[in-house]
Fold this sequence. Notes:
alpha+beta, Serine Threonine Protein Phosphatase 5, Tetratricopeptide repeat, Jelly Rolls, 4 domains
Amino acid sequence: xxxxxxWNKVAERLRGDFGRLLEVRDxxxxxxxxxxxxxxxxxxxxxxxxxxxxxVTVDESGAMAxxxxxxxxxxxxxxxxxxxxxxxxxxxxxxxxxxxxxxxEPLLEMLEMLEEPVDVRITAAISRGDPASLRxxxxxxxxxxxxxxxxxxxxxxxAEVELRLGEKGLARGYIExxxxxxxxxxxxxxxxxxxxxxxxxxxxxxxxxxxxxxxxDQARSRLKPLETLEGARSFANLSESTRRRIEMNAVIRxxxxxxxxxxxxxxxxxxxxxxxxxxxxxxxxxxxxxxxVRCCFxxxxxxxSSVLGGxxxxxxxxxxxxxxSEVWIIPAPALREIMNEDLAFAQRIAExxxxxxxxxxxxMHETMGQLDVQVRDEMLSCIQRLETFDDETILLLANxxxxxxxxxxxxxxALFEEGKxxxxxxxxxxxxFYGVRDTIHRIAPSVTAIARPGTTVAFFDGGRLAKLCExxxxxxxxxxxxxx
Length: 484
């Protein structure tokens, strides 16, 4: 469904139940393990003022939860009434400007300083180059880390400032962080710049095998173009007849840098395989705009929605060439016909789609989104299986060290204390993790985890998660420990 379709559907439902009393104010796409959904803000429109009633979720089938009732509207009015009875906070700026004229000049200077763009102040401080100015730049630079597009360049600048201040240890950390950002985006020119700086800091002997050197080698090796479709993992080891039929239906398209292949929300009509170059996956942000969550190198398969989502399938992300690139394009009807005859191949495409869904969920997840793409890829590689349970099923027993961690895709997991089988201590809902910390640190939980009927769970291999932590920086371990 598109944003406008969701808006219209909810608005129509509200009109049928409440007339013109309630209105839709905002529609935001959210990434879920089981597929995309939409969060819709519903308000009660008063005299020039909106009162928040509820946020409802609309899934891919159009189902809404929760169903808005009169109780939601009544509670909205009561909240507004309670808020009106609370005294407004004192005006901290009251009397501002009433001081003597002698005090005006410092205040004006302060305001002018605040209005000066941070990047201008940083550039000026670095240009001056004296220790005091470099320390000023050091204090200002972290403010720019919130900009996803320039985060890597900012980290590299932070490293250069620390080197000029004689702090080689801090500089090495910033160089490695910058290199990971550039590797995520497969920005080879800037990755090579980070590698050059790392080489200068570490020396030739220590640079060999260093994290930055490894990232550079991996990026270069992954950019090798494919000769045939068989080089793509999804199409490897197919029967000769299946491979030939796919190749007969595939055409090659060349994309210029920044040329769009598909746009999120458009009809999904084909499967794509990257032959050469790089294709960026761009997702809409809940707050508006979009950001690139990964670069896909030769061999990546994209556009599975076209063959798995039915005739009305929509693109779940925008795809853009990040440099001159070539892609194989396979029309959905032709590939769907082949999948209907080769069920093992169809299952392979379905599994690829589910991994991409989880990857999108990771990229927008409040905690997982802090990790770079390489770590998220390693997390994906730890997935053992996805399983759906028709009946209540015990997943993890109390007082036993779990061998797996869980991510709930649909349904929920109930947690029960020993000797209390009737009422759960807690419930792990969809899009939530359970058991990651216990699995990593080999801790036996005191509760039993039971999947409720209709629940789908992604299981992560505990041993591989533990090894991932052993070779990861402390910030990665901290992120994984917070999951669930």
